[in-house]
Amino acid sequence: MRRPTETVRDPSAATGSTPKLSIQDVSKTFESSRGSVQALTATDLDVQEGEFVTIVGPSGCGKSTLLMIASGLETPSSGRVLIDDDPAGPPGPRRSVVFQQFALFPHMTAEQNIGFGLRMRGGLTRARKQELVAAQVETMRLTGFEKAYPSELSGGMQQRVAIARALVLDPEILLMDEPFGALDAQTRTAMQDEMAAMRSRLNCTILFVTHSVEEAVFLGDRIVVMSARPGRISHELSVSSDFEWKRHQIEHAMSERSFNELREEVWRHLHAGGTRRAVHDAPDGGHDDAPDDAPGGG
Amino acid sequence: MTGRRTAAIGAVSVLVAIGVWYLATERLELVSPLALPSPVAVADRLVALHDTAYLGETIWGHTLASIQVMFAGWLLAGVVGVPLGVAMAWSTPVRRLVYPTFQLLRSISPIAWIPLAIIWLGIASSARIFIVFIAAVVPWVVSSMDGVTGVNPLLIKAARTLGAGRRTMTDVVLPASLPSLLAGARIAMGNAWTAIIAAELLAATAGLGFVALNSSRTLDTPTLLAAMAVIGLLGMLLSYALQWLSAVLAPWARKA
Amino acid sequence: MTAPEAATVARTGSLTPARATARNAQWAAASVALFVALWWLASAWTTEGLVPNPWEVAQTFWELCTTPFAELTLPGHVLSSLSRWGVGFAWAAVLGVLLGLSLGAFATVRAAVTPIFEFLRYIPPFAWIPLAVLWLGAAQSSAALIVFIAAFPPVVISTQVGVAGVDPALLRAARSLGAGRLRTITQIVAPVSVPEIFTGIRIAVSNGWMALIAAELISGTEGVGFLIIQGQESNNVTIVMAGMVAIGITGAVVTGAVNLLGTRLTRWRKTSETAN
Ligand SMILES: Nc1ncnc2c1ncn2[C@@H]1O[C@H](COP(=O)(O)OP(=O)(O)OP(=O)(O)O)[C@@H](O)[C@H]1O
Ligand SMILES: [Mg+2]
Q: What range does the record give for the signal peptide (chain A) (predicted)?
């Protein structure tokens, strides 16, 4: 079932640039005592360097499965995953994962959680590790809570620890599985704004799974819509980085017409599971059909 | 891993263990038969004991002696322990006056009562019933107390509004505390089985523990191991039987 | 916290914690006083020497602390018992956690060991006493072996339960952060299972203590169990009871120490969980 790289349908192949992360013809079937479940049918997805791709879809459509395969934590039943055109192999420091339920180690303090990956990696002096952890504590606004255990932190703080733990390894690719799904509405909004702000600082390619269409539209350069039974990508649409609301807060964006148009379009595809590709430009952008221009600089 | 594979590995592992035991004793004679007889010798002895008397009884007779005393002590502990536990759960004065002393006394191992039981009751079966009682009464009390206090007060209120009246106790409280009580009964049974063996090592003229001790004194290790095997099998059987009983009597309770 | 204690707390909920504790202590004192009174009555109403009264037991307890009986003073017997208990318990804790971890982590080990372990654990530790004496003589080591046999299974089972309960998301997180199999087990699985492991350790403490007393009753040459069986052989109920008091106190102290250790090692849990 392997497909040579040249025949990948993605337009990026046409532009000649190598995708940072390439998921090719990946499918996954889970075998269990109650029979087998096809979580994902043959799926292709390319993510360019610096791109922020959001994935939306109904519960159980295989979003987490796709992300786990991209991370190397789950092996696909068929197909392959490439990073910079090379087989991605087992999980490593190039890819960091932020999990659906935070997955913080309950017996480690915030600081110890953040430093865990550095300790596993080795090759760094103690002082350097401390320095890196301290820097993350600072940027994630966790100062004063370094010695707190996860059970002593609020949901928002726990999530910031989880993100810091992933970012401290300076990954090339950040994989996030509904990182804000377990937060209350208010904290969630704050984290969405924070994520948008953080993104401009990060030199990172991001694949971000979410349940929330607003979140997907607000954060993504490109939105991938998945549908269930069997799990597959049913639609993709690009969001121009020229939209003014991309630089504001999500509350503000929600009252913008272009934002709401996009949101409604994603909803339509979520309900219908269409296959057409669409491109959305800012009203004044005048872009052509090139949804995958690396948007990081925009 | 599939169930079949687990079973296969388990079977192989048991066979290997017995095989090593057999080789080490019967074939290679690595250990003295006085310390560890071969599985064949143990099996032979088990079969022989089935109809020849050892210390006055066949293995069946000794088993029966152990089980009778164990059941008597276990039942007595239930008959005393459950009302005590329920009383402590329902009445604050009773709980305040009895519970601290109960906690104090339970810190003394049941086994430590054996010398006292011998002085007071000699080596009659009443001494062993007493020891089994001491060992089994604690889980009976704790589980009935937990069971009753653990009943959701909303359930009792709901029953009252539905007009249950006097039948609240029999129709709501008892069934709701049954899972806890059955769990306690099972722990009590395990304790009772442990205690009867200990008591028989010190104060008995029959029973599996008595057989174990006497055979070891005469260096008759095949009989000792045969007795241990029967003790283990019966303990397992009793545990499974009570587990089955719990599932039948309180099918709504999850296995603890 | 057990349910009845929770009920007490709920009922005294309107009081300040300090006053509630004081009131509970008053009731506990009343309860013990009532027990002592009943005991005194029992000793007055039975044949002389059958049930000594609490005062006689207390006096004997004090005398045993200073004058040796069966070679040693009471504290000497307690220390002797504790040393054997310590050896057996330490082995049981270390090997039990190791076996429990491997049973939890490796399905093949689990499949191979479970049937044998399941059978052996149904043989009460006391049934091993004759065999242990046969193997090791009436020496210190046979008692330590019995403690081990009694304390090992609860540690194995609770560790296995703890490992099975570790959130798989934590394992995935550890792997994605670069932890190999061994480090995942030592740094994530084992510490996260500590609360369950300690449930087993607590049972192991009292099982081991009980088994040690039994071993000393049957084949001891010193220790508190030996002391009370010597008391029985000289038909001296007062000595037996004084020994039983020592057994109770020692058991409670050891359990308390282990509980303290358990609480310290699981400080990372929510306070509502540790109150268990
Ligand atoms: N380990 C597994 N074994 C068996 N089936 C699984 C396993 N993991 C996932 N599945 C099944 O695969 C399908 C996709 O699961 P997945 O977790 O990827 O969905 P999801 O889109 O992330 O859902 P959610 O939004 O609820 O997180 C589901 O039907 C699920 O039941
Ligand atoms: Mg998911």
A: none
Residue A32: predicted pLDDT: 77
Q: What residue owns the CA closest to ligand 1's atom 29?
A: A60
User: What band does A273 get if pLDDT is binned at 50, 70 and 90?
Assistant: low
From chain C, the residues in CB contact with B34 under 8 A are 134
Q: Is A155 on the interface with C (CB under 8 A)?
A: no
Instruction: Give me the pLDDT at residue B253, please.
Output: 67
Sequence-distant (6+) residues with CB within 8 A of B99 are B88, C4, C31
CA of A215 to the centre of ligand 1 (A): 21
Q: Is A56 in the pocket of ligand 1 (CB under 6 A)?
A: no
Q: How many CA atoms lie within 13 A of B152 on its CB side?
A: 5
Statement to judge: residues B7 and B76 lie in one domain: no
Judge if the beta carbon of residue A210 lies within 6 A of ligand 1: no
- pLDDT band with cut points at 50, 70 and 90 for residue B254: low
Q: Which chain A residues are within 8 Å of C193, Cβ to Cβ?
A: none
Per DSSP, helices labelled H in C74-185 are 74-105, 107-120, 129-136, 140-164, 168-176, 181-183
Q: Tell me the residue range of the domain where B5 lies.
A: 1-31
Please state the ipTM of this predicted complex. 0.87
What residues in C contact A68, CB-CB < 8 Å?
Answer: 172
User: Do residue A139 and residue A244 come from a single domain?
Assistant: no
Per the CB < 8 A criterion, the answer to whether A218 and A196 are in contact is: yes
| Nearest alpha carbon, ligand 1 atom 26 | A59
What is the average per-residue pLDDT within A169-180?
92
Do B140 and B57 lie in a common domain?
A: yes
Is the pTM value of this prediction over 0.90?
no
Alpha-carbon gap, residue A113 to A106, rounded angstroms: 9
Q: In what order do the strands lie in the sheet with A205-210?
A: A95-98, A173-177, A205-210, A52-56, A222-227, A232-239, A278-280
